[in-house]
Amino acid sequence: MGLIVQKFGGTSVGSPEKIMNAANRAAEESQKGNSVVVVVSAMGKTTDHLVSLAAEITQKPSKREMDMLLSTGEQVTISLLTMALQAKGYDAVSYTGWQAGISTEHVHGNARISGIDTEKIEKRLSEGKIVVVAGFQGFADGSEITTLGRGGSDTTAVALAAALKADKCDIYTDVTGVYTTDPRFVKGARKLEGISYDEMLELANLGAGVLHPRAVEFAKNYGVPLEVRSSTEAERGTLIEEETDMEQNLIVRGIAFEDQVSKVTVCGLQNGLMALSTIFKTLASHGINVDIIIQSTADAQIASLSFSVKTGEVEETVHVLETYKVELGFERIEFENGLAKVSIVGSGMVSNPGVAAEMFHVLAKEQIEVKMVSTSEIKVSTVVGHADMVKAVEALHDAFELSEQPAGVLGAN
Amino acid sequence: MGLIVQKFGGTSVGSPEKIMNAANRAAEESQKGNSVVVVVSAMGKTTDHLVSLAAEITQKPSKREMDMLLSTGEQVTISLLTMALQAKGYDAVSYTGWQAGISTEHVHGNARISGIDTEKIEKRLSEGKIVVVAGFQGFADGSEITTLGRGGSDTTAVALAAALKADKCDIYTDVTGVYTTDPRFVKGARKLEGISYDEMLELANLGAGVLHPRAVEFAKNYGVPLEVRSSTEAERGTLIEEETDMEQNLIVRGIAFEDQVSKVTVCGLQNGLMALSTIFKTLASHGINVDIIIQSTADAQIASLSFSVKTGEVEETVHVLETYKVELGFERIEFENGLAKVSIVGSGMVSNPGVAAEMFHVLAKEQIEVKMVSTSEIKVSTVVGHADMVKAVEALHDAFELSEQPAGVLGAN
Lengths: 413, 413
Prior knowledge:
Chains A, B: It is an enzyme of class 2 (transferase). By secondary structure, chain A is α/β, with parallel strands linked by helices. In chain A, 35% of the residues lie in helices and 26% in strands.
């Protein structure tokens, strides 16, 4: 007996049939005697449809009106899911973000949750109701509808779990858990039983795509145990919680990768150290996200600077930099498309300094050229040619023995 | 300079292009120096789509969740219309029913407005903003979303106009005004310049379909001048207000008609007067709407009773009555499909007792059999064969000289 928060993403509620399926999941937990709060996203392609409607009206919709528009998506899902639960004989009630008491800062399009008044939800739970809450949305200043931006429904679920002191937050999705790497590309990819918040954070940030980094960070800060699991398969998923002994013997926990990466090099920088901050401030003010940054100094005055961006943003990056060429003070810009980023992640790295070296060794053996490198305490990222991406992931997956079930937890399922 | 409330129905905001057009209408009034509040319905087929989604989940959705679902429809429209106004350079803001302060009784699916807190809207108007409000919806008990049922957006517009003491409420629709009869059927149908609330009420109730009776009643009670006009044509529409001299010389103002009418006769009633109330209570409790009722008494004990219903409800009517045959005490039921109702409306009838007789004379001359008759102070309704419907309307339209411009207001435009 406990309190469970369940979250179903867009693909898990993409049709009336899938909504019925999500209702079954909630009903199962209720049957076990648990109190259940369900958080849902908009149905499948709904958000895309609404965005394209707005695009037919104007290319620059105001963020407030976009929030007004997009927040209807989850409202449709909560009502349908609640109807499904009621049709199955369960007492259930739906709440939008504002009805559920989810306050946010007064920012449109990307608001952060500032507090949750849980009184109403707790009252409904104590009456034995399943409470269905719209993810992704909240309210500010008493009555303004706001949205939380990308990964917003994950964040709603975790924040509600934290505020309600839930025993667990289950993230239902279209995969069965968090894998050592993407199983669509690497045959030996294995589902992890457990992973720490920090590792999940690196994997989430690195494009594993199962769970939004904001939600993981929130869960870490409030100690909410998460489980990523399939909305259609019955099997256990992957538990995300504070560092445990589970699979501790694994130095590398997973391998993330993404393509559509480009490398931009600014050559002949004249302003030395100042250039660094000026260039990235300029790019940031134009909304361009820079990932890996490498500075190589030829002599004290003339240096060059490389960084990676998404390939889709190369053109604007070059345009912005050329516009400010005089102020920034450089000779020329070079760029290389068709690259990919491959990263190994694992909290065991902190105490194993040889991991990066082992990674480079594996890549060298496969004759894969490493074009950029970036490291943190629990990850090493490399930029390689797109053609080498899957080969690199497979070789690393083998070398770090990720396909094998760790001895310590064999049979734990 | 004044305050105008504009209302755009589903077909007038059925596409992004039509929403842009509605924005132009609001902008025009704003340009003239008027304060403008715009009330909108859900886009075209949106409500149907939402209803069919719910039907895929359950055949008996709860009314609360249907309100939650359907109220998203207008929310989409208010955001898109506001974006359109902003794109044209106008300062505008959208409000859902609850944000606009529209309180209703706590009934789902068919709530009545209990009050409007206009403070927020008035503040926005004083800041020079065009305020765009979701029709059809309100809130009860502080945070429960309710809807107003059929014709709800018309009612929202009129109620807002009353609460804001607006100078006028313009109902934009896909016709250019209120006609003497349906111009799709009768060539000589003429647009009326003015009509009284009561006359409009009878026409609205009789299926003219331009404006919901509830809204007309509300407008009458609060003295809100209404104009029904085209959302695409620039011409003046039809003004609806308290009895004026305008066109007063016309005894009959318009002719309404509808088909799909059936006549049901309950023969051999044994319980005399009691049967009347028992039968109609029974039918009402099964949601069957009875229109014209005629009782003919053969002797004090054995009577027969006829009434008209929509043809689509005949089957259930007969089924319900047969189920309670013993309690109701009758011999047999007869019914006749393929009928139509034709009504003449005009407040001048009150002081012209010969109008009904003139109507029967016209129909008799055309050899049209009148199967049922019902009268009120300002209308006479007849039930005729469907094949005679248009012929009856044309003959009456001619006989009461509705095609001709009344002398008193010629050139008033």
